[in-house]
Amino acid sequence: MHFVTRLSAVLLSLWVFAATAAPPDALSDGGHGAVTDVMDGDSFRMNGVAGDIRMVGIQAPKLPKGRPNFRPWPEAGDAQRALEALVKNHTITLRLSDMAKDRNGRTLAHVVRDDGLWLQQELLRKGWARVYTFPDNRQFADELYAAEREARAAKRGLWADKYYAVRAPDPDALKRDLGTFQIIEGRVVDAAKIRGRYYLNFGNDFRTDFTATIAPDAVAPFARAKIDLLALKDKNVRVRGYLRDFRGPQIELTHPEQIEVLP
């Protein structure tokens, strides 16, 4: 009976560990140490790792970091302080995917604290970052989106600032924010494929209204994710990315995690 009791306790502890382990624990180990400098809400330096570390999967409001004529984004200082508070008196572990460096030489990593806290998820849950994925770094998007939705619903952190509000596909308003990262939500009025490129039109006039586009060489990941792009017509969707101007405001979608199909 004593053996059974001990075995049950061991199994329970293993179950608790499995239930609370951060998803990035499955990635390769990129090093352990204490954070020595927090540059902004999603980048820092640490003992034992050379250079800057960029937290993948999220984007916190940006600070100038020495860039001339760069205006801080709203809430950037608070986001930096939020990350500082999370790493203070803790060591952290970097978890690396296949793409572990960016073009600037920064280490790209998911970050797990010594008590198991996944820092990307926590910053999103507290409202100090938005989900921001790339074609070659998009793991755990479902978990990250869930944390972002929780914070947005509660108006935590940057979600209390209208600067970060989810935008309607109003072309006149969006044109004033070209070059910025935006989240845009609305109904797809039409979906078309022309010479291999897909167009999701959010208005009746494709020459002036907001459009999300997918280049021919970016279509395969959407197919693997079982997203029928033409079937998105009349669906309410949320897309995110940097706005550019091409016959009206436009976002180029490069991977399926940039689209959320809404109920």
Q: Calculate the terminal CA-CA distance, rounded to whole Å.
A: 52 Å
Give the amount of beta strand, in percent: 25-35%
Poorly predicted segments: 1-19
For the largest beta-sheet, the strand count, sense and barrel status come to: 7 strands, mixed
* CATH fold-type name of the largest domain: OB fold (Dihydrolipoamide Acetyltransferase, E2P)
Mean pLDDT across all amino acids: 92
Q: N-to-C SSE series? A: HEEEEHEEHEHHEEEEHEEE
- The CATH class assignment of the largest domain is Mainly Beta
Spatial extent as radius of gyration: 21 Å
CATH architecture classification name of the largest domain: Beta Barrel
Number of helices: 6
Helical content band? 10-25%
Number of strands: 14
* Domain unit count: 2
Structural class: alpha+beta
The shape is: globular
Task: Give the structure's gist in a few sentences.
The chain has 263 residues and is an alpha+beta fold. Helix content is 24%, strand content 31%.
Written overview of the protein:
The protein is an alpha+beta fold and 263 residues long. The protein has 2 domains: 138 residues, OB fold (Dihydrolipoamide Acetyltransferase, E2P) (Beta Barrel), CATH 2.40.50.90; 96 residues, OB fold (Dihydrolipoamide Acetyltransferase, E2P). Helices cover 24% and strands 31% of the residues. It contains 6 helices and 14 strands. Strands 8, 9, 10, 11, 12, 13 and 14 form a 7-stranded mixed sheet that branches. A 5-stranded mixed barrel has the order 1-2-3-6-5. A two-stranded antiparallel ribbon has the order 4-7. Helix 3 packs parallel to helix 4. The longest helix has 19 residues. The protein is globular, with a radius of gyration of 21 Å. The N terminus is likely disordered.
